[in-house]
Specification:
Keywords: Glycoprotein, Glycosyltransferase, Golgi apparatus, Lipid metabolism, Membrane, Signal-anchor, Transferase, Transmembrane, Transmembrane helix. 38% of the residues lie in helices and 18% in strands. The chain is an alpha+beta fold. The chain folds into three domains: 2-55; 59-123, no CATH class; 127-387, Alpha-Beta Complex (Spore Coat Polysaccharide Biosynthesis Protein SpsA, Chain A), CATH 3.90.550.50. The termini are far apart.
């Protein structure tokens, strides 16, 4: 508004003086225009500088953020309504590590800083804790459990229940837990505790991505990489969440059935014709840039799905071509679609249950998987079910 008043004032003076001194008026008019342009340029610089300072952290921390985006973490700040205000999405590999240089660009209106992150292909990461010789016993079935680093209670509950079964119907079974990097002020102590737990149980695998909900796609792809590179001799594998009840006898009966394929097979809770959520306040939001189609391909619900062990290597290879997005089970479905492999419905779909409702022993004797409320509930139900068999 001040600019308009200034311009208006200058033109008024020029008109009133025009008859008396045309030449002087012309000089004043040019001078006023010069001042106006100077003022406008100063204003643009001022407000641009102010805007930049208000959208990034000040001082040294800002420089650290920029450096970390390039070499260590990716940072996205979500608006209110998300579970976490700030999520560190990926830990970049070491400088001497051979990795793919492909990146995916995230540029949504919810980000404070436009960032790049490494795609979910697991060659972008390395193992911190590993059990590379675990499969020398040639297991028939490998259970891979993605779990947060701090969820020791969940791991111990599984170790004392279905994760403790090393032989089922004469077939060798192995259970491993996959975790990412710990975060927070006590991360060093938490890491030391994980290393001690690993020495005690020899069932932890840890990779150098930051463990967060947004990173479940990375977590799943690291699972696939471990199976493909460390345990290709297994017949079947299962990705099963840490809050699940798993009936091992029913699962093994399914896998040993003569009509169960030994290649290109994956089954669980089949999700068909599911729309992509575009609401930015949703936990399951995916931008059109990351996944432009309005609906996902057919996929298996991520809580638990079992597959022939030829698939991990194929899925890892497909992930080189399929653009990563943050809904991990739908992303696996996109990789399967790329491979031309369709998920199979289980012979008895009701055996893969999302929730069982009120506890009933007979119901738990029939299912393969279902979600539970707590580690203690898993222990209690397991004891009760086993007491009747």
């Amino acid at each position: 508004m001040e600019v308009k008043l200034f311009k208006g004032y200058g033109w008024k003076r020029c008109i009133s003086a025009q008859d008396r001194a045309p030449r002087r008026c012309h000089i004043k008019k040019g001078f006023i225009l010069l001042l106006t342009l100077t003022f406008l340029l100063s204003a643009i610089i001022y407000f641009s500088d102010f805007s930049l300072k208000t959208t990034v952290p000040p001082g040294t921390f800002y420089k650290n953020v920029v450096n970390q985006i390039r070499s260590y973490y990716m940072v996205i700040k979500f608006p209110s309504g998300r579970d976490n205000q700030t999520i560190f999405l990926a830990h970049a590999p070491k400088a001497d590590q051979q990795v793919q240089q492909r990146t995916t660009h995230i540029s949504t209106q919810t980000t404070d800083i436009s960032v790049h992150y490494h795609v979910a292909h697991p060659s972008n990461y390395h193992y911190i804790l590993d059990e590379p010789d675990k499969c020398q016993q040639n297991p028939f079935l490998v259970l891979m459990v993605p779990v947060a680093p701090h969820q020791l209670e969940a791991r111990n509950a599984i170790r004392s229940t279905w994760g403790n079964e090393s032989t089922v119907q004469g077939k060798a079974v192995m259970t491993l837990f996959l975790v990412g990097l710990t975060g927070g002020s006590d991360s060093e102590k938490a890491q030391q505790q994980l290393e001690e737990e690993s020495r005690q149980h020899r069932d932890l695998v840890q990779s150098n991505f930051v463990d967060s909900y947004f990173n479940l796609t990375i977590k799943t792809m690291v699972i696939m990489d471990w199976l493909a590179t460390r345990c290709p001799q297994a017949n079947f594998s299962m990705k099963v969440d840490s809050d699940m009840y798993l009936n091992m006898d029913n699962l093994m009966t399914l896998l040993l059935a003569p009509n169960t394929p030994r290649q290109n097979y994956i089954t669980g809770v089949v999700m068909r014709d599911r729309s992509v959520i575009r609401n930015k306040n949703s936990k399951w939001y995916v931008s059109e840039e990351l996944y432009p189609e309005p609906k996902y391909p057919t996929y298996l619900l991520g809580m638990a799905y079992v597959f022939s062990n030829d698939l991990p290597e194929k899925i890892v290879e497909a992930s080189k071509e399929v653009k990563a997005f943050n809904i991990e089970d739908a992303y696996v479905g996109a990789c399967l679609k790329h491979l031309g492999i369709a998920p199979s419905s289980p012979p008895v779909p009701s055996q893969f249950r999302v929730y069982m409702g009120q506890y009933n022993r007979e119901g738990f004797l029939r299912v393969i998987t279902t979600i539970l409320g707590s580690p203690q509930q898993l222990i209690d139900i397991w004891k009760d079910v086993k007491s009747s068999t």
